[in-house]
Amino acid sequence: MRNTNNHVSKIGIMGGTFDPIHYGHLVSAEGARDEVGLEQVIFVPTGRPPHKFGYNITNPRDRYLMTVLATASNNYFQASSIEVDRPGFSYTIDTVQSVIEMHPSAQIYFITGADAVLDILTWKSVEVLLNICYIIAVTRPNYQLDKLWDKLGDILHCPQKRILSMEVPALAISSTDIRRRVHEGRTIKYLLPESVEDYIAKHKLYKH
Ligand code: ATP
Ligand code: MG
Questions:
Q1: Domain ranges (residues) in the chain
Q2: Chain Cα centroid distance, residue 195
Q3: Residue minimizing CA distance to atom 7 of ligand 1
Q4: Which residue did the predictor score with more confidence, 60 or 148?
Q5: % of the chain with per-residue pLDDT over 70
Q6: 171 CB less than 6 Å from ligand 1?
Q7: Are 168 and 143 spatial neighbours (Cβ–Cβ below 8 Å)?
Q8: What class has domain 10-173?
Q9: 64 CB under 6 A from ligand 1?
Q10: Which atom of ligand 1 approaches the CA of 113 most closely?
Q11: What is the mean pLDDT of the chain?
């Protein structure tokens, strides 16, 4: 990795439950990488996401392994187990801080979908977060990012330019829909990488 005075490396973090990871996640990360010029995108499956407390989430090891499989063919992508290895709830601020410790001179970009970013005011230590990284909010069908700017208003004393919005080809794919399809015995082909589809079948995930 080059690091001279006029070259700051840019690292993306794609966080998510990834239960399972699908093409919506991969397209978003690749779009951000290309548009912002990220040197790498680290996919971080959450350990225990506080906003999904009470849901029946697949165990972290399976979600992490599916993330490894899905990212294997892209040289810019890698999967990290930092959150699944950490006990307790997973917060974006902790993950960003861990990545900064590993790459102290890099500029960090946290990539997230429009649905998740609309909840940004509920994120732990959001004002600190916006001071230490950029957020890339990618479009997702049925979520209007314009609302975000109204919502942030005067509440956050952060420059709006810390949150970048980005158009990605609209993919109406969600993990919820994939899980439901598997449960109902319907096809999930072309919604996610074949390697992940095979993993789901082999380990009989989402059947019950
Ligand atoms: P679930 O239905 O279980 O909530 P999901 O498909 O929303 O799953 P998550 O793991 O919750 O996937 O999402 C991780 C991140 O990826 C979030 O920031 C989310 O907004 C974003 N994301 C998920 N699917 C898409 C998509 N089709 N297009 C753009 N962004 C997406
Ligand atoms: Mg989601």
A1: 10-173
A2: 19
A3: 174
A4: 60
A5: 90
A6: yes
A7: no
A8: alpha beta
A9: no
A10: 20
A11: 89
